[in-house]
Amino acid sequence: MTEQDFSERDIKLQEHYRDILSLIGEDPEREGLKRTPLRVTKAILKLTSGYNMDPEEVLNSAKFREDYSQMVIVKDIDFFSLCEHHILPFYGKAHVAYIPNGYITGLSKIARVVDIFSHRLQVQERMTSQIKNCIQHALNPLGVMVVIEAEHLCMQMRGVEKQHSVTVTSDFTGAFNQSKTRAEFLDLINLKGK
User: Fold this and answer.
1) Residue 16: how many CB atoms within 10 A of its CB?
2) Which of 97, 109, 150, 176 could crosslink 92 through cysteines, CB 3.0-4.6 Å?
3) Active site positions, annotated
């Protein structure tokens, strides 16, 4: 993105970031800060690019009929997101499983769905459910389970300042309502006994 590609919105964002620098006591004209509003604008647009994408469309773009009805797991999907309460990063790994019901999707599309929802202002709990609901709606599988493990800088840098805490969330549908199926998934992603 060059400065010529900037929309009115992008210019306003730069102006607001320049104002923020002034309001916290900095000089936005200082050599090290002159281009900071531009850099932060580019960063925030990248970090919130998920608002401009349809995750169901991504899944459906690689939806194939397949007679396979065992668990499909894509685990250790790295993600970065922004906490909507403090606009500070949280990051970690998502583990996603589904049991096909006549249709599968490209494996990379599962990771893309995680990316789309993580590139929005988020809370981990909502993101977990959004990923599950999207896969359930687009593929209509026999079940979906999502587990997310994340570290939150809003807990590490401010507030309680707990450096090594990890938050784990899960959500599931269908066949994963059976404890045996959930246990198999957790065993396969090696969360059990951690």
Assistant:
1) 13
2) 150
3) 83-86, 124, 152, 154
